[in-house]
Design goal:
The chain is α/β, with parallel strands linked by helices. The protein is built from 14 helices and 13 strands. α7 links the parallel β5 and β6. It starts with a strand and ends with a helix. The structure holds pyridoxal-5'-phosphate.
Amino acid sequence: MEVNLISDTVTKPTLQMLEAMFAAPVGDDVFKEDPSVNALEEAVAQLFGKQAALFFPSGTMTNQTAIKIHTQPGDQVICDHFSHIYHYEGGGASFNSGVSCRLIQGDRGRITATQIEEAINPPDFYHSPKSSLVSLENTTNKGGGAVYDIEEIKKIKMLCEAHNLALHLDGARLWNALEVTRESPKAYGALFDTLSLCFSKGLGCPVGSVLVGSNEAIENALKIRKILGGGMRQAGYLAAAASYALTHHRKDLKNDHQKAKEIAAVLQTLPLVDHIEPVQTNIVIFALKPQQDETKFMLKMKEKGIYFIGLGKGKLRMVTHRDYTEAQHDYLLTTLTKLNEDERL
Ligand SMILES: *Cc1c(COP(=O)(O)O)cnc(C)c1O
């Protein structure tokens, strides 16, 4: 049996999703004439109570565009040291926008208003880069799928207003966070200037992200998307998949969360496991005992058909997703339990 827990991006479209894609009316979206893209953008803007939205090929491009529209070269972005925008976007913040990142040591990827306040450079002190943007991630990726307390975000929002800083959300997995907290997307929309949302993660689409914000922000984003080469033509086939997922797949995220918790519970019993980070959503991050060899462990699991990755030492990561079946789940848990018995690592 093969079990792929490398990421929640490994899912494939279902037959029903493919049918929705096949049936999509399309046009040239670079001329804003694709009805399926327009419908998706309108629906997502409405869902978050924002004026406008823009469809993108990737979450990297939505984040990079957001950074560009909120900053000038030389400015500084305040974010957690685990941030995707800092670690996993190829240095795009400096490449595309000419900005630096002021990194904060948060709690599993989550930063507080107090920490941000300390990181803001005084605007009249011209020796320091100008702080112009705060970027949060929810759920956190390298932080193990941790979910923000919205009360903290409200404090951050007030702080940003007081200091004239823009506030962006990297919400690649915001759907997972909302599934846990049961908060409304509008509550999130009200707190951020721009939000980036992915459809190619837990929602199971092959491609697609959306940036939401004010009319002005999205007008600026359209220009940047063009510069980055992200204008797509009959993109409605992809937008139709996202619209389908919004209606039909959000409710299934709780199954991924449940399975992740069950994996953590079994890992907890293994003598070779040192610790597991708390599991709130669909990401399980764990560390082996210091005398264990992570590479050997991953290789041994691979031989059994079980795939996952490491995000740096002490951060082995398994991500559950909608294509991870009950049968695969049983196989993984049984295999892990057996490791417990013969402990030959
Ligand atoms: C996956 C991800 C992104 C976007 O990645 P793409 O592969 O470019 O779509 C952005 N932020 C976070 C936290 C992610 O996990």
